[in-house]
Specification:
Layout lengths: L21 H4 L5 H4 L6 E2 L11 H13 L9 H14 L9 E4 L2 H12 L5 E4 L6 H8 L3 E4 L10 H12 L6 E5 L11 H14 L2 E5 L25 E4 L13 E5 L4 H5 L11 H13 L1 H25 L13 E5 L9 H9 L1 E2 L1 E2 L10 E5 L4 H16 L2
Parallel strand pairs: 1-10, 3-4, 3-5, 5-6, 6-7
Antiparallel strand pairs: 2-8, 7-8, 9-12, 11-12
Helix pairs in contact: 3-10, 4-10, 7-8, 11-13, 12-13
Length: 396
């Protein structure tokens, strides 16, 4: 595979996705840019190819200059999140007194599941789903039970009810780990769907823990609905973060939020859990939620453009690949089964095309034959990625 010119970039604009050149990106030392050799174009792990929002840069710089690098304290993060939720989602039910800071969303998920379930208990997930759900749940001695999504990529309530009924027959305390918006499909669950989920959970005595990390990243025309805001969601627990919306995974911090009927559960969270987040991370996330709205709006506009671009490129170059632009996230879930590349087309695109995508296999049932592509990059790099994918087929 021929190498890609190092200076491919778009002119500097208000769109954060068009401000960095490939040469600048390759100077990064994070997972996305150091896992593969330099001739591989990485469009896989959920890191965005953006400069940080200025309010975040300022918060981190001020903390470092002041030496404010101690342990986290206070409720500023939760207060900023409550303000963001009110402004963006019309939800005024995020009560700061029912929150806790946790190291990050997945470690927060682990702590919430510890509160509402026990060792060996079942945890229901909607496959295909974010691979760490399997890893973290398994490592904490819980049993993953799949309730696969429907053919339309949405929660299949009949399947979910059947699974809830089966896990309820045991003697343990079953839980449901809800991914909202859903990763990898980008599905935004409607208020009615979430209310139906809550009703089923109440009927079968299943506790809901919602991973809502992608909530800020909703496409134009779609509306995110917090699980705790729907009827019946009062005993739910949610994990939220600015991590995905503002590209802050290296600045660890998240907020656990309890519904009114789950306040006593959250109150049992061990104090030491709150020592895990980075204080600088908390400051960065707070600044993003409080002052990073204009930057986020520019990002969301750029992601809308990239979804349309990818759809056009695939239709013209790889029409056998099925792609439905997502309602949320910066991820694209591509059905490559018609290409007849086997269960793991990502391996073929990497070996023959030198483009790194996520294999669908680790996402569980329904993932074979799919790849996940990270859209949070420049239009030029998306165009190059699709060119390489098409070239990989020519090299069979």
């Amino acid at each position: 595979m021929d190498g890609m010119p190092r200076d491919i970039s778009a002119p500097a604009t208000g769109n954060p996705l068009r401000r960095l050149t490939l040469e600048q990106l390759r100077r990064r030392t994070s997972m996305k840019w150091r896992t593969y050799p330099q001739d591989v174009l990485p469009l896989w792990v959920a890191e965005m190819d953006v400069p940080l929002a200025e309010p975040v840069v300022r918060a981190v710089r001020d903390a470092v200059e002041l030496g404010d690098t101690g342990y986290p304290a206070g409720t500023a993060y939760a207060e900023a999140l409550a303000g963001f939720a009110s402004e963006r989602w019309g939800w005024d039910g995020l009560a700061v007194e029912r929150t806790a800071i946790v190291p990050d969303v997945m470690l927060g998920v682990v702590e919430m599941l510890k509160l509402v379930s026990g060792p060996g208990d079942p945890v229901v997930v909607n496959s295909p789903v974010y691979p760490p759900f399997y890893q973290f749940v398994g490592n904490m001695d819980r049993r993953v039970v799949e309730a696969p999504l429907g053919a339309d990529g949405r929660i299949d309530l009949a399947v979910l009810e059947d699974v809830f009924g089966r896990v309820r027959k045991g003697t343990g305390r079953p839980a449901y780990l809800l991914c909202s918006p859903h990763n990898p499909t980008g599905t935004v669950h409607t208020a009615q769907e979430l209310a139906d989920v809550a009703a089923l959970a109440r009927t079968y005595g299943v506790r809901v823990v919602a991973d809502e990390i992608h909530a800020p990243l909703v496409a134009s025309g779609a509306t995110f609905v917090p699980y705790l805001s729907v009827p019946g969601g009062q005993d739910g627990l949610s994990l939220m973060s600015a991590s995905k919306g503002w590209n802050l995974p290296g600045l660890k911090a998240a907020v656990a939020v309890a519904g009114p009927d789950a306040a006593d559960d959250l109150a049992r969270l061990p104090e030491e859990v709150g020592h895990g987040p980075s204080h600088v991370g908390v400051l960065a996330h707070t600044a993003a939620l409080r002052d990073g709205g204009p930057w986020l709006d520019a990002l969301l506009s750029g992601l809308d453009d990239n979804r349309r671009l990818l759809a056009d490129l695939l239709a013209g170059t790889l029409p056998a690949v099925r792609y439905e632009p997502a309602e949320a996230t910066f991820l694209a879930w591509l059905d490559c089964r018609a290409l007849e590349l086997g269960d793991d087309p990502a391996a073929v695109f990497l070996e023959r095309g030198r483009v790194a995508l996520n294999s669908g296999i680790p996402f569980g049932t329904g993932g074979a034959g799919f790849v996940r592509l990270n859209l949070a990059t420049s239009p030029e790099l998306i165009t190059e990625a699709v060119r390489r994918m098409a070239a990989a087929l020519d090299r069979q």
